[in-house]
Amino acid sequence: MNENEIPEMPKDFGFGPDEEMLRDLAKKLLDQEMPIEKMRRLVAADPAATYEEGQRPGWDEALWRQCIELGWTGLAVPESEGGAGFKMVGIAALVEEVGGHALASPLLATLNATYVLREAGTQQARVGLRAIADGASASLAITNQRGAWDHARPDIVATPKDDGYVLRGSAYFVQDAFKSDLFVVQARLEQEGGGEGQGGGSILCVLRSGTSGLALSQDHIHDLTRDQATLVLDDVMVVAANVVSTHGVETLDRAWPAILTTVAADLCGSSEWQLQTTVEYAKTRKQFDRPIGFFQAVKHPLSNGMIAIDRARSLVYHAACCIDVNLESGTDAGFEGALQNARMAKSAASDAGRFMSDRSVQLHGGIGFTWECDVHLYFKRSMHNQMLYGDATHQRRALADMIIGKVSSDAG
Predict the structure, then answer these.
(1) Phi/psi at 8 (5° precision)
(2) What's the rounded Cα separation, in Å, for the pair 277 and 274?
(3) Residues 318, 345 contacting (CB under 8 angstroms)
């Protein structure tokens, strides 16, 4: 195949028996081990402790160990490094089930860190991949204080020293930081004299959670199914063996389609739960001697929600398929298309999440606004995912820049 030739897309997004089995096993496990009653006890037992005292919500570590034993942490790790080398469409199906159960775990953060290490392609990155395949959890520490999702200018600075670097500064919005064993950290290069390195480049390195000089400051967030933190580095020495990429921005760029697709899949799962739960409520709740689902003011929003979710899900699997095809072809010919489709998926999934969250609360009536109603758990997870790595408006703006830039280039 010519390296500039865009590969052909397979039928059904490449979704086959292996992917179907992974999805069905995940659903069976989570239905059994994480019913909504158990999840509520873990994460929403006491609103005062969570929001006023800053207590981190609980999570089922025993279930997480089961996920590790099933190989979920190593799904995106290549087989050569001890992982499953699973298709992205299969990972998307698994993540959709995770979102549908609002599972509190570091799975999404670990998958996103894995994509970055996989794209780094260095011997140092392979060490990190093997650790994840063996069950280590990981998270990305790449975002500056402004919350810019372009990862072009991190707040952490790397100063060369001896055969490594000294890291100073902070990374913000680190997902499930208190559950993570490893952090993939981006730092911009700085010369020993204080000026930025040539070209203003950046590096990516892997740090363990117990590294001396590394501290976590817990963020106050609404989502009860995960934690978030600011990672602070105070003169942390990183040896060359822990530097996984000396081209940080380029490596993150290549991993970005998979990161966006994963978050979008979780959004589809949480939105589907809200839709199905609200439909069931509309069948049983009666007003004027009829189920409220009889009335157009209820049935039409539910139909619109179904359409929005199906549209987003289709875009998610198409984006995942593009990523798989690129990996199989071994070329970057389809990268731009994969990124465009991933941005479309994240935009559509965010829109569906916002619409379905709003309607699920409203259509549950007065109880929908209460802490006792489970809808708020999914509402908050959806809100968090909508903003994570850029909301729908951000993705559409980035899409416009890509398309208009391409049109301008072609016209020139």
Answers:
(1) -80, 145
(2) 5
(3) yes
CA 351 to chain centre: 16
What single-letter amino acid sits at 158?
A
Question: What's the DSSP call for residue 45?
Answer: S
Residue with tokens 């919350």: 147
Q: Is the pLDDT of residue 295 over 60?
A: yes
CA distances in angstroms from 55 to 45, 46, 49, 214, 379, listed in the order given: 11, 10, 6, 21, 20
Question: What is the gyration radius of the CA atoms in the chain, in angstroms?
Answer: 22
Q: In which region does residue 238 sit, left (phi positive, over 0), alpha (psi from -120 to 50) or beta (all else)?
A: beta
> What pLDDT was estimated at residue 235?
95
Q: How many CA atoms lie within 13 A of 251 on its CB side?
A: 29
| CB-based contact 234:168 (threshold 8 Å) | yes
Strand pairing report for 138-141 and 182-189? parallel
Closest CA to 232 of 152, 151, 108, 141: 141
Question: Is residue 234 within 8 Å of 213, Cβ to Cβ?
Answer: yes
Q: Is the dihedral of CA 105, 109, 112, 118 positive or negative?
A: negative
- Angstrom distances, CA of residue 310 to CA of 91, 276, 374: 18, 13, 23
Kindly tell me the number of DSSP H helices and DSSP E strands found in the chain. 12, 10
pLDDT at 298 over 90: no
d(CA 43, CA 102): 10
Q: What is d(CA 88, CA 83) in angstroms, rounded to the nearest whole number? A: 14
Four-point Cα dihedral 369, 375, 377, 379, nearest 10? -80
Exposure class string for 211-225: b at 16+ Cβ within 10 A, else e: beebebeeeeeebbb
- What is the model's pLDDT at position 411? 45
Instruction: Render pLDDT for 85-101 as a digit per residue (tens, 0 to 9).
Output: 999 999 999 999 999 99
What are 219-237's pLDDT values in tens digits? 999 999 999 999 999 999 9
C-alpha closest to that of 243 among 162, 323, 178? 162
Domains and CATH numbers, the chain: 11-136 (1.10.540.10), 141-246 (2.40.110.10), 249-411 (1.20.140.10)
Integer angstrom CA distances of residue 30 from 27, 68, 121, 320, 381 = 5, 14, 33, 23, 17
> Among candidates 320, 308, 203, which has minimal Cα distance to 260?
320
